[in-house]
Structure formats: structure tokens, C-alpha cells
Here is the input.
Amino acid sequence: MKHSKTLPFQGACGGELACATCHLIFDQEVYDSLPEKVDEEDDMLDLAFNLTETSRLGCQICVKEECANIKVTMPEDDY
Here is the structure.
């Protein structure tokens, strides 16, 4: 996964739903507008630190023009 900015965001599995290193927390309004999660994403989120009601895996979110200016929080990993 290539990043244009230096962010503490790993995305180790490359979008294959094999880890939770791209765990993100969305504002409720944004979360409600996202496509529904598949069961595999829920399974991986169970392994994420600091899980919230609006947590998603970033690798499963298709970024479109309407995503401009949304707020996304990267949770602390407790390490």
C-alpha cells in the first residue's frame, strides 16, 4: 500500500481483509453513508484496538470525490 503522506497507517495486508492495521474511526454521519460491512470485515475488526461503533477497515472503503473533507480518526494502538 503506497501512501502519499507520512502517516502511522500500515495497511499490511494490502486490502485482503487479513489484518486490522488500517482500522479507522469515522464520524457517525460519514459512517452511515458508507457501504455496509461484509462479515469478514467484522471478523477483522474484532481484532482491532480501541474498536468503536463507527470503526471500519480503511482498505474496504472506496474513496470517492464525495469523501473530500471528511474527518477520519486513527485510533491509538495502546503500545
Remarks:
- The longest strand covers residues 23-26.
- The mean pLDDT is 84.
